């Protein structure tokens, strides 16, 4: 979180009038092979990002609900590779659609 805070400080200093949107971290697919990176960690990090957004009066966009399957993993149709981490074109389309159509929480 300290790096997010430093980044936010730098953005706000460089562009004090810009609208900042903190976005949730996308979930991991069941094919993710990195043992240290888990959906539990992603979920906890997203909660911290939400709290950070509220504490700084910034907008927050939760994309995870649109990207998760019934078991809480990233839907495989959104994965760009076997690493289970990165999203593909279809995943980006979901993300962009959410930016365009969802009310952002202040």
Folded structure, characterized:
- This protein has four helices and two strands; from the N terminus they run αβαβαα.
- The chain is mainly α and 106 residues long.
- Strand 1 (21-23), helix 2 and strand 2 form a beta-alpha-beta unit.
- The protein is globular, with a radius of gyration of 15 Å.
- The mean pLDDT is 90.
Instruction: Determine the mean pLDDT.
Output: 90
How many angstroms does the end-to-end distance come to? 19 Å
Low-pLDDT stretches:
none
Instruction: Look at the helices and sheets and give the structural class.
Output: mainly alpha
Count of discrete alpha- or pi-helical segments spanning 4 or more residues: 4
Main beta sheet, described? 2 strands, parallel
Total DSSP E strands: 2
What spatial order of strands do you see in the largest sheet?
1-2
Order of helices and strands: HEHEHH
Rg, Cα atoms, Å: 15 Å
């Amino acid at each position: 979180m300290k790096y997010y805070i430093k980044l936010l400080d730098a953005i706000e200093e460089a562009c004090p009038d810009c609208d900042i949107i903190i976005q949730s971290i996308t979930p991991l697919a069941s094919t993710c092979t990195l043992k240290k990176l888990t959906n539990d960690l992603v979920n906890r990090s997203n909660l911290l990002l939400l709290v950070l957004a509220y504490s700084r009066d910034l907008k927050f966009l939760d994309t995870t609900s649109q990207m998760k399957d019934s078991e809480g993993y990233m839907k495989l149709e959104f994965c760009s590779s076997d690493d289970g981490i990165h999203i593909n074109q279809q995943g980006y389309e979901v993300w962009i659609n959410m930016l365009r159509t969802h009310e952002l929480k202040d």
